């Protein structure tokens, strides 16, 4: 009997990025290119974790995947940061589409209040929101 291949987190990340871009958002992964921002004055930054292969049964087949994705919603003011958070919430309300996987709807884990970043000029406002994403083989 062949050993099942552990799931890969990258297709889930790609699907999340595509869903956010499909909602009209500018999306970066792991930070803003060059370490500094330029307009647009509202965007989202994805910070994925590597995920965790989870047992599908007592047989110890680790084919299910659970991962947490932080989406940092950034804007030139508080309203723009919250606008991005609203678009993110709408875009991630439905299950992601990943070939060969069945995805649960992302679970909104919330985040802290909007914060101001004075380390950039002009200042930006941001709010990180986390989502738990789970998938199983289709």
Description:
There is one protein chain. With 138 residues, the chain is an alpha+beta fold. It has a single domain (10-137), classed as STM4215-like (2-Layer Sandwich). Helices cover 20% and strands 36% of the residues. It is built from 2 helices and 8 strands, in the order αββββαββββ. Strands 1, 2, 3, 4, 5, 6, 7 and 8 form an 8-stranded mixed beta sheet that branches. The protein is elongated and about 60 Å long. The two termini are 19 Å apart.
TL;DR of this structure?
The protein is of the alpha+beta class. The chain has helices spanning 10-22, 78-91; strands spanning 27-29, 42-48, 52-54, 64-75, 101-103, 107-110, 115-117, 124-137. A hairpin with a 6-residue loop joins β7 (115-117) and β8.
Query: Would you tell me which CATH topology applies?
Result: STM4215-like
Count the domains. Answer: 1
Could you say which overall geometry the principal axes of the C-alpha atoms support?
A: elongated
**What's the CATH C level?**
Alpha Beta
- Beta content: 35-45%
CATH architecture descriptor name = 2-Layer Sandwich
The low-pLDDT segments are none
* Helix coverage percent: 10-25%
Which structural category do the helix and sheet elements fall into?
Answer: alpha+beta
**Mean residue pLDDT:** 91
**Sheet with most strands:** 8 strands, mixed
Radius of gyration: 17 Å
Order of helices and strands: HEEEEHEEEE
Total E-strand runs = 8
Query: Alpha-carbon distance between the termini?
Result: 19 Å
How many helices? The count is 2
């Amino acid at each position: 009997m062949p050993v099942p291949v552990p799931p890969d987190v990258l297709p889930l990340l790609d699907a999340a990025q595509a869903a956010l871009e499909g909602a009209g958002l500018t999306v970066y992964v792991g930070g803003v290119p060059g370490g500094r921002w330029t307009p647009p004055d509202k965007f989202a930054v994805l910070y994925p974790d590597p995920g965790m292969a989870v047992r599908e049964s007592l047989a110890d087949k680790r084919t299910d995947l659970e991962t947490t994705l932080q989406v940092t919603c950034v804007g030139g003011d508080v309203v723009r940061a919250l606008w991005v958070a609203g678009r993110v919430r709408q875009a991630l309300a439905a299950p992601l589409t990943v070939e060969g996987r069945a995805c649960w709807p992302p679970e909104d884990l919330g985040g802290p209040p909007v914060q101001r970043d004075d380390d950039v000029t002009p200042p930006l406002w941001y709010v990180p929101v986390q989502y738990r994403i789970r998938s199983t083989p289709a």
